[in-house]
Design brief:
By secondary structure, this protein is an alpha/beta fold. The protein folds into 2 domains: 260 residues, TIM Barrel (Alpha-Beta Barrel), CATH 3.20.20.70; 71 residues, no CATH class. The strands form 3 sheets. It has a 9-stranded mixed sheet, sandwiched between helices. A 3-stranded antiparallel sheet has the order 10-11-12, with no helix packed on it. Strands 13-14 form a two-stranded antiparallel sheet. Strand 1, helix 1 and strand 2 form a beta-alpha-beta unit. Helix 1 runs parallel beside helix 2 and helix 3 packs parallel to helix 5. Probably acts as a heme chaperone, transferring heme to an unknown acceptor. Binds one molecule of heme per monomer, possibly covalently. Binds 1 [4Fe-4S] cluster. The cluster is coordinated with 3 cysteines and an exchangeable S-adenosyl-L-methionine.
């Protein structure tokens, strides 16, 4: 299970938005639907997920109905605030959404569309464990309105999968990708690099295997050791080595080279797509700070600068909604300083870049030095935008510190 929820102010039990909240009726709106169930907990994962032994009375077979009741609450709250907008993107994340029957995912999607409407050409993504995707599942998801599947490949190397506690069969990645393709879905594959015992050649094999699948999109994330996870405890006890920063940098450079040679372009530090149309529009909504409602236990939401988060455990989540109450555990309104910091942190990671004019006068003076250090693209800076070079992507945290400290 994930760590503690953020500190914040109490959230109203009826879920109402503050009367003084000014919502832009033209701003994009997205929905995140969290499915918190997993068969096995991966050793590196600190997401809000639960195996069957941790559910404490919560039920997978009634989960869709419980989440649909939160959708009804959101519809009422946004309607009262005069802020109903059609959905531009929907994302089923987890956990393992495809542990639920495809029919349940379809019912949840229909409830969201019925409540808010959906924009023409909206992106609807489902994360999937390779072992849970069959041609029948992919077809049913596509018929329900899903447009995109994100397959959790992580690695093509058995000993790397074992180090990550991933239990899927590597050959089922191809089965899942082909099933998604046959159903007419765009397909993304997710990779992780820097696992204990993973060599640069192991990583090359994973990249080459992923490219052989001909996906539309690839995410490649450096392994981060999160406090409280099994992997963090193993490293602390000296059972496995901590990730090597230099090796991870080499792995990133290799990924950028191979993906670029295969026709992919980076649009965010850890994400590459074949075309701009195949970028993850949902994740881009987060990076751009637009509005979204997060449904499910532990899910976070953001509307017009107000943020709130739901109670973590599925049983507590279900109990709140059964009582006709909002599942929100807390809320906050970040001040201007926090909002500016987050804008730099997120927008500077995107290939579209960070407008220089949003920086303070003091921080604008830092741009020339970052160009001289090879961290920012000079031509983009002349056009008024901070765009990271390859070296800058490897040192993105240093760029953010320079533009915010």
């Amino acid at each position: 299970m994930a760590g503690a929820l953020p500190q914040g102010d109490p959230a109203p039990t009826d879920g109402r938005l503050p009367a003084d909240l000014r919502i832009d009726a033209d701003a994009p709106f997205s929905a995140y639907l969290h499915v918190p169930f997993c068969r096995v907990r991966c050793g590196y994962c600190d997401f809000n997920t639960y195996t069957s032994s941790e559910l404490q009375g919560a039920r997978q077979d009634t989960y869709a109905d419980t989440l649909i009741s939160e959708i009804a609450l959101a519809r009422s709250v946004l309607d009262e605030a005069g802020a109903l907008r059609p959905l531009d993107t929907v994302f089923f994340g987890g956990g393992t959404p495809t542990l639920l029957p495809a029919g349940d995912l379809g019912r949840m999607l229909r409830a969201a569309v019925d409540a808010f409407g959906i924009s023409p050409g909206a992106e609807v993504t489902v994360e999937a464990n390779p072992d849970t995707v069959t041609p029948e599942v992919a077809t049913e998801l596509a018929r329900a309105g899903v447009t995109r599947m994100s397959v959790g490949m992580q690695s093509a190397v058995p000993h790397v999968l074992a180090a990550l506690d991933r239990t899927h069969r590597p050959e089922n990645v191809r089965t899942a990708v082909e099933a998604g393709r046959a159903a007419g879905l765009d397909v993304s594959v997710d990779l992780i690099y820097g696992a204990p015992g993973e060599s640069l050649e192991d990583w090359r094999l994973s990249l080459e295997t992923a490219l052989e699948l001909a996906p539309d999109h690839i995410s490649a994330y450096a392994l981060i050791i999160e406090d409280g996870t099994k992997l963090a405890r193993q490293i602390r006890r000296g059972e496995v080595p901590a990730p090597d920063d230099d090796l991870q940098a080499d792995m990133y450079e290799l990924a950028d080279q191979l993906l670029g040679d295969a026709g992919f372009s980076w649009y965010e530090v850890s994400n590459w797509a074949r075309t701009p149309e195949q970028e993850s529009r949902h994740n881009s909504a987060y990076w751009r700070g637009t509005d979204w409602w997060g449904f499910g236990p532990g899910a976070h939401s953001h509307v017009a600068g107000l943020r709130w988060w739901n109670v973590k455990h599925p049983a507590a989540y279900a109990t709140r909604l059964a009582a006709g109450e909002s599942p929100a555990a807390g809320q906050e309104r970040p001040d201007a300083t926090a909002v500016a910091l987050e804008r730099v942190l997120l927008r500077s990671r995107m290939a579209e870049g960070l407008p220089i004019d949003v920086l303070s006068a003091t921080h604008r003076t830092k741009v020339a030095g970052l160009i001289a250090d090879g961290l920012i693209d000079p031509a983009s800076a002349l056009r008024g935008t901070v765009v990271l070079t390859l070296r800058g992507r490897l040192l993105a945290d240093a760029v953010v510190r320079a533009l915010t400290d």
